[in-house]
């Protein structure tokens, strides 16, 4: 009888756990859940549809992306340049996701898609930062090769998100991802170098 009572009370607590959480705990919980799916998206195992439909994970992910991006500040690029590059990247990704979802008449998925795009860039940048500093510190070409591999990996993950969000073929999503990457690079070189 004691086991049954304890198990039954545990089920009741688990059922109402979300209700008893404070709003801040719920927001942080949504973000941690989103981070888990960002990592799964980076290994091609999840999709934007699994993210919570809430603006809070997007805001926290954007903030974290700015913080990770600021680790790239050096003598060549200051805080303003890094922030401007991140804003440009976010604007371009937001515009691409808006146009693609409007074309497919699925604008209701924009928040999840945009959050996924920013989230995978957060993960990719967090992985790139240490490799970037190792490549600068050493003249070894293996680190540069690793940086190129990370860029290709990022384009593959972007392509998968576009494919799943827009419900298009992998070829078309790969073309969108590659075109975005080229336009972004040319824009950054034109504006900042």
Would you kindly provide a written description of the structure presented here, covering whatever features stand out?
It contains 8 helices and no strands. The chain is mainly alpha-helical and 193 residues long. It has one domain (2-192). The longest helix has 28 residues, at 110-137.
Write the layout of secondary structure elements.
Layout: H1 2-15, H2 17-20, H3 23-42, H4 55-69, H5 79-103, H6 110-137, H7 141-166, H8 170-192
Key features?
193 residues; 8 helices; globular
- Briefly note the structural class of the backbone: mainly alpha
- Give the biggest beta sheet: none
Radius of gyration: 20 Å
Number of strand elements? 0
Topology pattern, helix = H, strand = E = HHHHHHHH
Task: Return the average pLDDT rounded to an integer.
Answer: 88
- The structural domain count equals 1
As residue ranges, the low-confidence spans are 1-5, 11-19
Which outline best applies? globular
Helix content: over 70%
User: Approximately what portion of the residues adopt beta-strand conformation?
Assistant: under 5%
Distance between the termini: 74 Å
Number of helices: 8
């Amino acid at each position: 009888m004691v086991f049954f009572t304890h198990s039954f009370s545990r089920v009741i607590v688990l059922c109402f756990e979300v209700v008893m959480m404070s709003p801040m705990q719920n927001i942080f919980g949504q973000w941690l859940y989103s981070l888990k799916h960002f990592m799964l998206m980076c290994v091609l195992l999840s999709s934007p549809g699994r993210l919570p439909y809430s603006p809070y994970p997007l805001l926290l992910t954007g903030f974290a992306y700015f913080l990770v991006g600021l680790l790239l500040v050096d003598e060549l690029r200051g805080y303003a340049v890094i922030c401007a590059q991140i804003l440009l990247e976010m604007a371009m990704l937001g515009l691409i996701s808006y146009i693609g979802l409007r074309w497919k008449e699925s604008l209701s998925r924009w928040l999840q898609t945009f959050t996924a795009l920013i989230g995978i860039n957060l993960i990719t940048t967090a992985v790139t930062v240490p490799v970037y500093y190792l490549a600068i510190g050493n003249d070894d070409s293996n680190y540069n090769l690793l940086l190129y591999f990370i860029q290709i990996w990022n384009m593959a993950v972007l392509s998968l998100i576009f494919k799943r969000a827009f419900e298009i073929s992998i070829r078309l999503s790969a073309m969108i991802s590659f075109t975005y990457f080229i336009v972004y690079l040319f824009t950054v070189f034109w504006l900042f170098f």
